[in-house]
Specification:
This protein is mainly alpha-helical. Among the domains are: 118 residues, Serine Threonine Protein Phosphatase 5, Tetratricopeptide repeat (Alpha Horseshoe), CATH 1.25.40; 108 residues, Tetratricopeptide repeat domain (Serine Threonine Protein Phosphatase 5, Tetratricopeptide repeat), CATH 1.25.40.10. Helices cover 72% and strands 0% of the residues. The protein contains 24 helices and no strands. Helix 12 runs antiparallel to helix 13, helix 14 packs across helix 15 and helix 18 packs antiparallel against helix 19. The chain is elongated and about 105 Å long. It starts with a helix and ends in a 7-residue tail after the last helix.
Length: 446
């Protein structure tokens, strides 16, 4: 009889809880947050986990009560302790972002995991991120992929996209471009902008899918419309090259500009080129300089090099050789062979800097050993005349011979002039040096 009475009281209590909770939900939907919070409070204090979670949300949002993250945490904890997955997930968020509690990634991961094990897709995604970044847990890409997959299979677009990334870059799973494309597509079809861009890129390059420029354009357009700068830039390239669409330089400029305004260095550079060449837009050197400067300031070496040219020739700016040297040097230090050659030329001729043959040789040599023919020819001349370096006909002949082999007639004549100052034995040795230099890809040219 006692057990029967206890069971009956439990049923009655549950019925009361349910009534107050449902009334609270109804009041919330009507916008009567004061009544809702009061009803949730009453039921929550009686141990109803759904009401505890709802009350925590109200404290979190400041609806019907003063906003209080610490109080939200208290109620989330009570609901989470009863296994309420949404409360466990939200409690994880509070620990992750240090809202109402001290930031604690390990505690965040613990609560995410409890919710994730109950198939909460948001918690699965959050836990996967923790494993991917090594926050609160040891970094483990295999575990990240596992949890992404569970969330992805429930239709979570962000998880689908991130799982696609893991297959693409072989993180936690074997590299599989087809599988990457499959997950990208599922996310892209849910309007996930980054997935749309990634899928467009795969159709563009033919990785994981058959190459299809028209399909690439379709996905780029969808991502570009959501302001993904990489998609806007790539779409501009497609219009510029006439791939997947009719060639349209004006449309290319439109998309370059949208991406450039978001800070895309490649788009800023290509937009500058368009203004410089009058391609798809009226030629405007001042505008070209403006966009080159923005890309150059972000360290884009091609823009730095071209900006050097604009200052050297006075296009869009007052001619300023010193400023040209400054931009050439920035690009040259990043390995731009064209900038290295031009910087060498400026030092050789004393343009924008004091004439310095030693410095000229240094920059010519850096460009020459990367295969720059102009630098090789100038370096050969420096060796022949002994300018900035000890006179050395063997080196002069070797470098000029490398240029001559490319078919440049002037280089062939210059090589023959150098040969006149050498013995047949020296010429033979220089020829062997050239072969060895070329075979080593300019690694062994002494």
């Amino acid at each position: 009889m006692k057990k029967l009475i206890t069971a009956l009281l439990l049923v009655l209590a549950t019925t009361v809880w349910a009534g107050d909770y449902e009334d609270g939900v109804a009041a919330y939907k009507k916008g009567d947050f004061t009544t809702a919070s009061s009803l949730f409070q009453k039921t929550a204090e009686q141990g109803n986990s759904a009401a505890q979670y709802a009350l925590a949300l109200m404290y979190r949002e400041g609806k019907g009560v003063f906003r209080d993250d610490a109080e939200a945490v208290r109620w989330y904890k009570l609901a989470a302790a009863q296994g309420y997955s949404k409360a466990q997930y939200n409690l994880g968020l509070m620990y992750f972002f240090s809202e109402g509690v001290l930031q604690d990634y390990a505690e965040a991961a613990r609560w995410y995991k409890l919710a994730a094990e109950q198939s909460d897709s948001k918690a699965q995604y959050a836990l996967a991120l923790m494993y991917s970044e090594g926050k609160g847990v040891l970094q483990d890409y295999a575990q990240a992929a596992r949890w992404y997959k569970l969330a992805a299979e429930q239709g979570d677009a962000a998880a689908q996209y991130n799982l696609g990334l893991m297959y693409f870059f072989s993180e936690g799973v074997l590299q599989d471009y087809a599988e990457a494309a499959r997950w990208y597509k599922l996310a892209a079809e849910q309007s996930h902008s980054k997935a749309q861009y990634a899928l467009g890129r795969m159709y563009h390059t033919g990785e994981g899918v058959l190459q299809d420029y028209a399909e690439a354009v379709r996905w780029y357009k969808l991502a570009a419309a959501q302001s993904v700068s990489n998609a806007q830039h790539n779409l501009a390239v497609m219009y510029s090259e006439g791939k997947g669409v009719f060639r349209d330089d004006a449309e290319a400029v439109r998309w370059y500009k949208l991406a450039a305004e978001q800070g895309s260095t490649e788009a800023q550079f290509n937009l500058a080129v368009s203004y410089s060449e009058g391609k798809g837009v009226l030629q405007d050197y001042a505008q070209a300089v403006r966009w080159y400067k923005l890309a150059a300031a972000q360290g884009y070496s091609k823009a730095q090099y071209n900006l050097g040219f604009m200052y050297r020739d006075g296009n869009g700016v007052l001619q300023d050789h010193a400023e040209a040297v400054r931009w050439y040097k920035l690009a040259a230090e990043q390995g731009s062979t064209e900038a290295q050659f031009n910087l060498g030329w400026m030092y050789k001729n004393g343009k924008g800097v004091l004439q310095d043959y030693v410095e000229a040789v240094r920059w010519f040599k850096l460009a020459a050993t990367q295969g720059n023919l102009d630098a090789q020819g100038n370096l050969a001349v420096m060796y022949m005349k002994g300018e900035g370096i000890t006179q050395d006909y063997l080196q002069a002949h070797m470098w000029m011979n490398l240029v001559a082999v490319s078919g440049m007639k002037d280089a062939q004549k210059a090589r023959d002039v150098i040969a006149e100052k050498m013995t047949s034995q020296q010429i033979g040795k220089a020829q062997e040096m050239a072969k060895k230099c070329l075979a080593s890809k300019y690694k062994d040219c002494d």
